[in-house]
Amino acid sequence: MSKVCSVCGKGPSFGNNRSHSMVATRRRFDANLQKIRVLVKGSPVRAYVCTRCLKAGKVTKAI
């Protein structure tokens, strides 16, 4: 599954897990993506869209 928003292009970011002894191991923060039906050029298409774009109204949902 693609971990990139089809509207804004937001993808995963990276950081560290920190244990009690403060040893750092790399980890990945994935974007909160939802698979929804979106209208693209008048036809409904399934796409992965981040919740930030959904909340901002950047896409029109297909019913």
UniProtKB/TrEMBL annotation:
Entry-linked SUPFAM superfamilies: L28p-like
Coiled coil spans: none
Ribosomal protein recorded as keyword: yes
Gene Ontology BP, a term: translation
First and last residue of the signal peptide: none
Assigned GO CC terms: ribonucleoprotein complex; ribosome
GO molecular function per UniProt: structural constituent of ribosome
Keywords attached to this entry: Ribonucleoprotein, Ribosomal protein
Pfam families: Ribosomal_L28
Protein family (similarity comment): Belongs to the bacterial ribosomal protein bL28 family.
Protein name (Swiss-Prot/TrEMBL): Unannotated protein
Source species: freshwater metagenome
